[in-house]
Specification:
With 287 residues, this protein is mainly α. It contains 16 helices and no strands. Keywords: ANK repeat, Repeat.
């Protein structure tokens, strides 16, 4: 009715930017079709309508927009591009659709740098597999975590870490907040807030990743980072199982360094009495 009265179908403003984007954000495919039939610009404001629909998982809206000429690789907005948005929410069928329509699997953009990195961060294994099968660069650099391996590691996604390593992820790659790939898988590479890979996963209590790194030759007593070493990081966080694994693998219980000075002090600072007792039982020196 408003359109019949002369309303500008491409008028901009409001929280959604324009009518097409507003309809796309809610998955209203019939409204989207009407707006497009009335001349709505499918690629207005950097193609945000397609990006918004992809983020929401609205497959029918995405299909309509693509059929009307939406640029599948349009860049802009918070998430960078449609493939990134679909990947960020684990919408595997939409990821496949966008790739089949010519989406650049290695397109850069967004907070996490690219689609593979955001899918790895989110733990979306099926999306990661699709992207890799379509030629995603497993070692592409960029974004907050630097690369896909580091993003997966930072969240403790064991199976994805293994998948990425099996696909040739560079264990020595550096970059991002954590400094190198398995800080956040040479597994002893140093740098970043956590100092090294083992310290990063220890600080988050990722038991299986701690064991995986140790099995791959990580130095249990490597120094560096805010906490000084992995044992202190785990002790500070209250992760008694990680502490046990590290001690069983030769961690120096009285090693000094880091913010708290030692593992016992780190455990005390967090009120982790059980870990304090464990450390004392294993030979920690009271000082």
């Amino acid at each position: 009715m408003l359109l019949d009265k002369g309303a500008d179908v491409n008028a901009e403003g409001g929280a959604y930017g324009n009518a097409l984007q507003a309809a796309s954000s809610g998955g209203y495919d019939q409204v989207v079709q009407i707006l497009l039939d009335k001349g709505a610009d499918v690629n207005a404001q950097g193609g945000k309508a397609l990006q918004i629909a992809s983020f929401g998982g609205y497959g029918q809206v995405v299909q309509i927009l693509l059929d009307k000429g939406a640029n599948v690789n349009a860049q802009g907005g918070t998430y960078g591009n449609a493939l990134y948005e679909a990947s960020s929410q684990g919408h595997d069928s939409l990821v496949q659709m966008l790739l089949d329509k010519g989406a650049d699997v290695n397109a850069e953009g967004g907070y996490h740098g690219n689609a593979l990195q955001i899918a790895s961060f989110g733990g979306y294994g099926q999306v990661v597999q699709i992207l890799l099968d379509k030629g995603a660069n497993v070692n592409a650099q960029g974004g907050t975590y630097g690369n896909a391996l580091q993003a997966a590691s930072s969240q403790g996604h064991d199976s994805l870490v293994q998948m990425l390593l099996n696909k040739g992820a560079d264990v020595n790659a550096k970059g991002g907040y954590h400094g190198n790939a398995l800080q956040g898988a040479d597994v002893n590479a140093e740098g970043g807030y956590h100092g090294n890979a083992l310290q990063a996963v220890s600080s988050q209590g990722h038991n299986s990743l701690v064991q995986m790194l140790l099995d791959k030759g990580a130095d249990v007593n490597a120094e560096g980072g805010y906490h000084g070493n992995a044992l202190q990081a785990a002790s500070s966080g209250g992760y008694d199982q990680v502490v046990q694994i590290l001690l069983d693998n030769g961690a120096d219980i009285n090693a000094q360094g880091g913010f708290y000075g030692g593992a016992r002090q780190a455990a005390l600072s967090g009120g982790h009495d059980r870990i304090v007792q464990m450390l004392l039982d294993r030979g920690a020196i009271e000082n």
